[in-house]
Give the backbone structure.
Amino acid sequence: MVENNTASSARALAVIILAAGQGTRMKSSLPKVLHRIGGRPLVGHVLDVARDLHPDGILVVLRHERDLIAEAVTGISPEIRVVDQDEIPGTGRAVQVALDELGDFDGDVLVLSGDVPLLDADTLDALVAAHRASLAAATMLTAVVEDPHGYGRVIRGIDHSVTRIVEQKDATDDEAAVTEINAGVYVFQAEPLRAHIGLIGTANAQGERYLTDMIGLLHASRLTVGAVVAPDASAALGVNDRVQLAQAAKALNARTVRRWQLEGVTVQDPDTTWIDVTATLAPDVTVLPNTHILRATAVSSGAVIGPDTSLVDCEVAENATVRRSDATLAVIGPDTHVGPFAYLRPGTRLDAGGKIGTFVETKNSTIGEGSKVPHLSYIGDTTIGRGVNLGAGAITANYDDLAKHRTVIGDEVHSGSHNVFVAPVRIGDGAKTGAGAVIRKDVPPGALALSVAPQRNVDGWVETNRPGTAAADAAVRARSAQEADDGAQQEQG
């Protein structure tokens, strides 16, 4: 039972979220309400706006893929109460079982759809306020759209009052031409809702108990049914297929980008920038084109992100620069530089003033303050100290075909180009390594590590083993020219 919260409002408010439908038009093994936009599943956005209303209780009605959706819902909002719909289909039945769970609750019941993710709290507050001001038995949210196909039509009487809702499959040609649609959002007084919901029948194309029939039942009982037209029609539309999913994602992203712009973030090209609602950005961040800032990524003041960059669950500190790079679960410190074309895998930490450069891949590694991995390197399962510079082509070989091992590189180490550090191995502070070295043993502090075999030249190898090739012909010409030059020098001598 939901207790009335008379301290916060004149009437108590309970919210019922309908998420029991199968969503067949999505043509997906994933339940429709779990498809994601803006970093959250569709139902997650509905839960967010429901909580913003500070209701006395929130109930989510489930049926298809019950356990999967319940896990997602309670993961977002543990306080949410899950209600199971039985085998009787339809939104009317879903609300009926939720009402049974509410017990003798006597207030207003706001019904939301789990597939309408763009509604904001201001619109719903206005809907509830209009409902209470008019003393209506029910007040519904509607929208006027150019193409109403697929949505229930709102049928009004001669006095412009709402008389009923007709679903697409049940509409006549005249009814289908109506452009005012049902947004699937209602506020009911609990008492008349409870008294009439059992009267909903199944005389429709789908054989379901539609909640929309409540409007006609209340009208027939001479009870007031009101309607509020949504100020932004796009925000009131549900998601029924992949086309509408993409449209909702684009609309939500435009709203999110604009919000951060108004908070002091420079977004150079909003059309190619995607920011999840779960990400956070500080004032004076600059976001360049073709950049995705996703999930729980947090970007601090002065950072420059992009172009052509994707950050997933990353922390980016003040004045860092990340360009043309891909990073997941990475911590990027202040005054650092990443990219272009860097790949930071989970567990990467780049400390203040450090650099991860061009075509560098890192994983489960810490790169210390002021240290640089400038280019063409793989750094995995590695701890790098302060002031280190690794030459081009550095590889920390962390896998021996059975297990991963760690490389530890001390402070102020400078390595030559094309070094391979075969883990487990430790490089002492201040040590140096020569070009091309394969480091298999620990290097003491301040030592120079070399693994260079004496160079041996086999004269005439190409002419002997590759006769008739362009390389052999070039070698013969060069040898002849060199012999002629040597002969001329001997004559002069």
Confidence is low (pLDDT under 50) at residues 1-9. The chain has two domains: 13-236, 264-449.
